Amino acid sequence: MTLISFVVPAFRVQGYLRECLDSVLGQPETDIEVIAVDDCSPDASGEIIDEYAARDQRVRSVRLSDNVGLGPARNIGLDRAVGEYVWFLDGDDWLAPECLTEVAERLRATRPDVLLVDHVRTHWNDTATRSAMAEVFPESPGADTFRLRDRPEAMHLLHTAWNRLVRREFLADLGLRFAPGWYEDVSFSYPVLMAAQRIGVLDRVCVNYRQRRAGAITRTRGDRHFEVFPQWHRVFHLMDAWGSATDALRPAVFERMIWHYLTVLGNGQRIAPELRPAFFAQITADYERWLPAGGYPVPDGVEGIKHRLVASGRWRTFSALRAASRARDAARRQTRTARRRVGPVARRGARLTRDGLLREYYRAELRRPVDPTLAVYAAYWFRGYSCNPAAIYEAARTLAPGVRGVWIVRRDRVDSVPAGVEYVVAGTPAYYRVLARARWLVNNVNFPDFVRKRPEQVHLQTHHGTPVKVMGLDQQRYPIGAGRMDFAGLLRRVDRWDYSVSANSFSTQMWDRAYPATYTTLEVGYPRNDRLVTAGPDEVRRLRAEFGVGPDEQVVLYAPTHREHLPGYRPPFDPDRFVRALGDSGRLLMRSHYFHDRDRRPGRPVDWERVRDVSGHQQVEDLYLIADVLITDYSSAMFDYAVLDRPIVLYTPDWEAYRLARGVYFDVTAEPPGAVATTFADLVDLFRTDAVRSDAATKAREHFRGRFCTLDDGHAAERVVREVFLGEPSGRSSRC
């Protein structure tokens, strides 16, 4: 018999599900199975489950045709489980490395009905909060097992399904199922503990309980939080059915119920102000209904006062005390803030330079009406006219001619703006004016921190690549690569987004976890790649002629990415040796990352006979169309160039170091778009032997294109314009 069956329900967890499944399947203990249940999720969760099931026989995919909710989805997984123990793990949480070894050892040694394990709350800012395990059990119970009536303090551990493993036959004999609705853990976790004859505790952190910034039930306001009441009613109905066997536990269970109700009521992110009186009234009703005949242990201090106010139904007094407490806390925060600002306020007069005056001008412009016809575009921190914003701008000129488009560019990039395109220079009064008054703000990076999001404005984040390296909040786990990144500031900028453009399902999944906020995802392909689809042979011939490339010459484009953790790093690459390997008909184009646009140093000539530095060329799509082969490493260029279905070579001499220091979302060397070389000698040999076009390389590219390029059909920019500018739903948008 399999030792552990993991039941993993999935609904809107596409950004986290891979980490969850990897954390289970990568454990040293392999006597497991995973029943992953797609609860008719509107995102890519089902496809991810199928992908894992196809490559690991321990994973069983269950796809539901209707959304049934977390509890019923767990029941469906339970019905298919064959393990001796069942572990219900949520799809956005993940296991600690190697924890399963200790779990399995304890299960085999003690055979408990229930094994409680420890967890940490892992927050979006990469901090962790310990559970109550140390307070509940100051001295570890060790391998001893017990009944709940002997250690009722066990009820003070978090009442979730995922911090306990339950013996499957015990659960079947008990006939206990998850109830539908929110707070479904309540009517499962407490009865399981009350009925168990052998409860074990493993005080080892096994579960990372993700505290999601957006999308979690605990951060969702609404009347569905009233569903906590029927869940607790089920607990007491079960106790009534079980009779005197649970009488001794009633006082402790009752105390937990009132504690839980007050916890939900006190969370301003759950119960809206207008619903709080009715919620409090229901607490009082349940207090009167289920109060044990002999009373219960009322907590001390403020918590005890709350319990007594509930008992007497004194909502106004309860509300007034809560308001006073909140006001006192707010005053303390204001005092701390004021102390921190004393210095800056005192120095404000000295800072009223030109920039300060322009910021004042910006604030004045914010008081003027938004221009309903104005759209502002920017790319790569104002480096010029390019990328997805440029493609959207071109489409909007045709599809939304009533929209006036204005670009923001740096002063040293004015010459890159095409004739006829209106622009303003960053830092000028016109720059601040358009930022304050534009109806649409379109960028492939974030606008500066001072930009304030007005209610009438629409921020469109287009991004500028499918991610290989980790991005956003995920960089917190890789401090070397993240440098001094301000993650709180990043989230303030992300909160301005109304729309986020995604090139493919994989990008959508990664953006969900890297940039958690309440924007709408437009999974439509990348607008900048439209040109790669629509360009015909005549355009390619024209471009090659402009670059002086003959029709029979082989053009190789080398475009490595930068290394944030290694400033100034350049991969080992000898252009002369490489072009000799290409032969007389070979040409090499070399393009550095745009981050290096201001630090190119003079040295060897950059326009040799068969080698050309094209780093300054504004439109990278021109280079893709010219090139017969692309060489890159971890750059998103591979995803764009794959649209052309031409050979791609990955040159990854520092893969292991890059993966460990910078962090990556997947092993690009294991799932490459073509041939892979880890040394320069290997790279040269690939071209000498023409292995870049081998059957294996072609098959790898075909698989890569199927995963990442299916949406690039030449109409991505049109879909964006129709939805964002014209209000015509594309059918490919989803709310985060």
What does this structure look like?
With 736 residues, this protein is an alpha/beta fold. It has 4 domains: 4-215, Spore Coat Polysaccharide Biosynthesis Protein SpsA, Chain A, CATH 3.90.550; 221-328, no CATH class; 369-525, 3-Layer(aba) Sandwich (Rossmann fold); 531-709, 3-Layer(aba) Sandwich (Rossmann fold), CATH 3.40.50. Helix 9 runs antiparallel to helix 10 (276-290) and helix 14 crosses helix 27 (716-724). The longest helix has 32 residues, at 315-346. Mean pLDDT is 91; it is low at 594-607. InterPro entries: Glycerophosphate_synth (IPR007554), Glyco_trans_2-like (IPR001173), Nucleotide-diphossugar_trans (IPR029044), TagF_C (IPR043148), TagF_N (IPR043149), Teichoic_Acid_Biosynth (IPR051612). It is a peripheral membrane protein. GO terms for molecular function: CDP-glycerol glycerophosphotransferase activity. It is an enzyme of class 2 (transferase).
Q: Report the span from N to C terminus.
A: 40 Å
Segments where pLDDT lies below 50 for 5+ residues?
594-607
Rg over C-alpha atoms, rounded to the nearest angstrom: 30 Å
Shape: globular
Structural class of the secondary elements? alpha/beta
Structure annotation, total helices: 27
CATH top level label of the largest domain: Alpha Beta
How much helicity do the residues have? 25-40%
Give the assembly state of these chains: single chain
Give me the CATH fold name of the largest domain.
Answer: Spore Coat Polysaccharide Biosynthesis Protein SpsA, Chain A
Strand content: 15-25%
Tell me the number of strands.
23
CATH superfamily caption of the largest domain: Spore Coat Polysaccharide Biosynthesis Protein SpsA, Chain A
Supply the number of structural domains. 4
Biggest sheet features: 9 strands, mixed
Please name the CATH architecture of the largest domain. Alpha-Beta Complex
Mean of residue pLDDT values: 91
